[in-house]
């Protein structure tokens, strides 16, 4: 009769041991990046762009306009052009950010806007510039614009 409690105790301890590694593994798992988290931590007054969806892979941030993300001037430089897959607007003026697939201060080429009230666009793969080109990996410049200047062309 004494063997039954010993066997039950051994089985109970084995069951606890099997559950412990799974619990420890879950405790060390890193949460996925989210635009909501990025927006909460973003500096007010800035536009942000990210290389990956869900605001992962920080490319840069800008308080002002940048007419050419591919040159060595402005907040975005060189390899930043045509790489953004998510964007965030934490501006404080209430203005939208107009993103373009062209460069230059004439703000030519197609555009689309991210309103301040939209906060962020977590995946640009389903967005298009007014020219019809895809926004994902297509942004070459940006400027701050009033919502009325976007003529209803918003990312989200």
Q: How does this model look, in words?
A:
The longest helix is centred in the N-terminal third of the chain and has 26 residues, at 3-28. Residues 1-30 have low confidence and may be disordered. A hairpin with a 3-residue loop joins strand 1 and strand 2 (56-62). The protein is 21% helix and 22% strand. By secondary structure, the chain is an alpha+beta fold. A four-stranded antiparallel β-sheet has the order 2-1-3-6, covered by helices on one side. The chain has helices at 3-28, 35-41; strands at residues 46-52, 56-62, 86-90, 96-100, 111-114, 120-121, 141-145.
Question: Topology of this structure?
Answer:
Layout: H1 3-28, H2 35-41, E1 46-52, E2 56-62, E3 86-90, E4 96-100, E5 111-114, E6 120-121, E7 141-145
Antiparallel strand pairs: 1-2, 1-3, 3-6, 4-5, 4-7
